[in-house]
Design a protein that fits this description.
The structure holds two protein chains of two kinds. Chain A is an alpha+beta fold. Chain A has 15 helices and 21 strands. The N terminus of chain B is likely disordered.
């Protein structure tokens, strides 16, 4: 199969007809062309298996020209949020953080708290606008119940996953130094290091490190010394050894790839989210492009609507999907794809939704339950001198010493990201800083210019990711009253931020205030334009939080069918040839951004599938 | 530049307001047309950036077109005239950071003040901000008067990025590791 089969635009009617008359059965059908699906497709095709990937959204970013049109969307978008470069396709709708404000949108939010995160349904998935942080989970995150008496245990431990973390770091292309990351119990196998050296710290990281490093705080009676650390990032840096950084994907019908030399180093575009202009940051299209293309078929604009199951054995016999041409028109054709094995890699919410819509919720009501996020706080202020804001990858370092410890028996762990983009994420700066000076303070001319030059470079922002535990009260369900243009259910979300997380927010707030004070940062948190963030109250305090896009827990893994949806291999307990992959599989979140861990789990699942399919 | 353009430039140079007689020939050559030149002078007065810096964004024509399209007929010229009538030396004073009485003549004017502030936002942010309902009721409205980013070029050329000592997010990349460098004006 050649490159031209990869995009819908080049697919001919002949191909489609042969396909949909059932002339061909695949080894594996993968639902969703995001990072999890792409990694599994890459591994399976290289092992010689025939794989069909069905992607609900279009593949508009697959050519570099198409990708650049998304960049223009970002430039001219009035609001520069994570979705601003990636407008939805009507037939594959997606949540938007603006909906949290308006109350409308794709999600039906039943509360009591608003779920604040979004994702993207497009070839490449949400990695098109992820930040790129690739922290491993801590060993203790996998045994939270046994260690601290809260949350759940995983059916596998850190040591079992460690080899797959290494593989995932090489597949994604992660830049970091083991010497800096080896703490909090994180172990690396001997001689290992990341494929690329760490992304250089920003000037802001250096200023804050000088102020904060060595500072002591006490949590749960235990002292912790804080340190600003670079974090592992899926952004291209200086390679180690003979590693070749992977640049932009540029797949054209004529076989040319004009942009392939772009993006082999991060160039400091300060726009990881929503769009890295040169694809120096990993996105799942890179993995898909590396699949054995002779064994791969990708159909975009193909919304899987139902999983077909043999009622006696539980074996999946096919998936029904709806193919549309025009994302704005609900006109579509119906098809069935069949294979020996099936992988749902459609996203934590979409996986659960599809199972429920297929009547496969199971007897114990675990499917869809346990929805988690990192409900996150922003803290922002003005540094006494310039930190060089608005330059560099949106964040290059953080303070992660409070990710683990015995305090986790009482409240959530948390982690601070240091932003390199001033107050952009929190208030909409620099535009809002300008507007406040012009219309609020009445400044113009040289005094305006002087004010902005003295203010903007001093803007500091922390994001505080707070852990959330698995709870059956937080869930994705469906309701026949709420459907999308193709007649598929919209996710109905019940979401509550409990005291365990709120107490973590309280502790995190106290710690950031100590850090700001030590660094001489004038606190501006929750003033001005932050009023739209949803809020949650705790002991007389109000926290304004936002989602981090870290959906998890909706088909959590466990040790038996009684309490979980899948096993440690991400195989459905009820359907032996069905795998549900992605962060929906997580029984705990810890404080890591989920992509690296879900990538490691996907690679582990791919290995199990290859063994089994080869038999 | 054609001979006709040169001639017009020299003529325009002759109309130029005072205080710049030291380099009349250069000024004459650089001038496109008188109205554009007056718009650049007004913009320099409002933004605190020099005429060369503003012209260097390449956005002067786009912004003047935007104003002409969005504002009721005559308002742009009223603003340009109000700026021309400011006391001699007002520009120099504004550039030196002193509060200028002349500025109040424009910024506090109920009709021209909101427009002048929008011109500032246009230059600093690349955005047009919809005028208030009260302003539109009093002075006229246009269907084009909607808040928006004027264009991708305007977003990238916005002065706020320069004021921050930075670059537009998502464009004009500074190169690998540039974010580690000590910002301009910071000692040590």
């Amino acid at each position: 199969m050649t490159a031209e089969h990869m995009t819908a635009e080049h697919m001919t009617a002949e191909h489609m007809t042969a396909e949909h008359n059932g002339d061909r059965t695949y080894d594996v059908v993968v639902v969703g062309a995001g990072v999890a699906g792409a990694l599994i497709a890459k591994r399976l095709t290289h092992a010689g298996f025939q794989v069909l990937v069905l992607e609900a959204g279009p593949s508009t970013a697959w050519t570099f020209d198409g990708y650049t049109e998304h960049l223009d969307e970002f430039y001219t978008a009035a609001s520069k949020g994570p979705e601003s470069a990636w407008p939805p396709a009507g037939n594959a709708p997606q949540p938007d953080t603006a909906d949290v404000r308006s109350g409308g949108g794709y999600f039906v939010q039943r509360g009591p708290n608003k779920y604040g995160s979004s994702y993207t349904r497009l070839l490449g998935g949400s990695t098109l606008h992820w930040l790129g942080v690739c922290l491993r989970m801590l060993p203790e995150d996998f045994e939270l119940r046994s260690r601290y008496g809260v949350g759940r245990d995983w059916p596998l431990g850190y040591d079992e996953l460690e080899p797959y973390y290494r593989e995932a770091e090489w597949e994604i292309g992660v830049s970091a130094d083991v010497a800096e990351q080896e703490h909090l119990g994180i172990r690396f196998s001997g001689g290992y290091d990341y494929p690329m050296r760490r992304v250089p710290p920003s000037y802001s990281d250096q200023v804050l490190g000088a102020a904060v490093d060595g500072m002591e705080v006490t949590l749960g009676g235990e002292p912790f010394a804080l340190k600003v650390r670079n974090y592992p990032a899926g952004r291209n840096s200086i390679p180690r050894g003979d590693y070749q950084p992977v640049g932009a994907v540029d797949e054209r019908g004529d076989g040319q790839a004009l942009a392939a030399d772009l993006g082999q180093r991060c160039a400091g575009n300060t726009a990881c989210t929503p769009i890295c202009p040169i694809q120096a940051k990993y996105n799942a299209q890179k993995t898909l492009a590396q699949a054995d293309r002779g064994n791969l078929r990708v159909i975009d604009k193909a919304v899987v609507s139902k999983i077909l199951v043999d009622p006696v054995s539980g074996v999946v016999t096919g998936v029904e999907y709806q193919r549309y041409q025009d994302p704005g028109s609900p006109r579509h054709t119906r098809h069935t794809a069949r294979a020996r094995g099936y992988v749902l890699a459609a996203h934590a919410v979409e996986n659960a939704k599809l199972m429920l819509a297929s009547g496969l919720g199971g007897a114990n009501a675990a499917l869809g339950a346990g929805l988690m996020d990192h409900p996150a706080l922003y803290a922002w202020g003005l540094s006494p001198s310039s930190v060089g804001a608005f330059r560099g990858p949106l964040s290059t370092a953080g303070i992660d010493d409070l990710r683990g410890g015995s305090f986790r028996g009482a409240h959530a762990a948390f982690r601070f990201d240091i932003g390199n983009d001033g107050w952009r994420a929190t208030t909409g700066a620099p535009d809002t800083t300008v507007a406040a000076a012009v219309t609020g303070q009445g400044l113009f001319g040289a005094s305006l210019r002087g004010h902005l030059e003295a203010t903007l470079p001093r803007q500091v922002r922390f994001s505080v990711a707070v852990e959330q535990l698995w709870s059956s009260a937080n869930r994705v369900t469906i309701d026949p009253r709420y459907i999308d243009p193709l007649g598929n259910p919209r996710p109905v979300i019940n979401y509550h931020i409990d005291d365990y997380t709120l107490a973590g927010m309280a502790a995190a707030t106290d710690v950031y205030k100590q850090m700001f004070s030590r660094a001489g940062i004038e606190d501006a948190t929750d003033s001005g334009n932050s009023g739209w963030f949803p809020s949650a109250g705790y002991n007389g305090r109000v926290f304004h939080y936002h989602g981090m896009g870290h959906f998890a827990g909706t088909h959590a893994m466990g040790i038996s069918a009684a309490d979980s949806v899948i096993d440690a291999d991400q195989r459905s307990w009820a359907h032996p040839n069905l795998f549900l992959v992605g962060s929906g599989s997580f029984p705990t979140m810890g404080t890591s951004n989920p992509t690296l861990t879900l990538a490691a789990l996907s690679l582990r699942t791919a290995e199990k599938m290859i063994k089994e399919l080869g038999r | 530049m054609s001979r006709a353009d040169q001639t017009r430039g020299q003529l325009d140079g002759g109309h130029h307001r005072g205080g710049r007689s030291a380099a009349p020939v250069l000024d004459a050559v650089s001038v496109r047309d008188e109205r554009t030149d007056r718009f650049v002078e007004l913009s320099a007065f409002l933004t605190g950036y020099g005429r060369v810096e503003l012209t260097g964004t390449g956005l002067t024509g786009l912004y003047l077109q935007t104003l002409d399209a969005v504002l009721p007929a005559g308002v742009v010229d009223e603003l340009l005239d109000a700026h021309r009538r400011l006391p001699a030396g007002a520009n120099g004073a504004a550039n030196a950071g002193r509060d200028v009485a002349g500025g109040a003549l424009i910024l506090d004017d109920p009709k021209l003040g909101p427009v002048a502030r929008n011109v500032i936002l246009l230059w600093y942010c690349g955005t047009w901000t919809a005028l208030s309902e009260a302003w539109r009721a009093a002075y006229g409205s246009s269907p084009l008067d909607a808040s928006r980013v004027v264009s991708a070029e305007a977003y990238q050329g916005a002065l706020q990025w320069a004021a921050a000592g930075a670059h537009p997010a998502g464009a004009r990349q500074q190169g690998f590791g540039a974010w580690s460098l000590t910002p301009e004006g910071v000692s040590g």
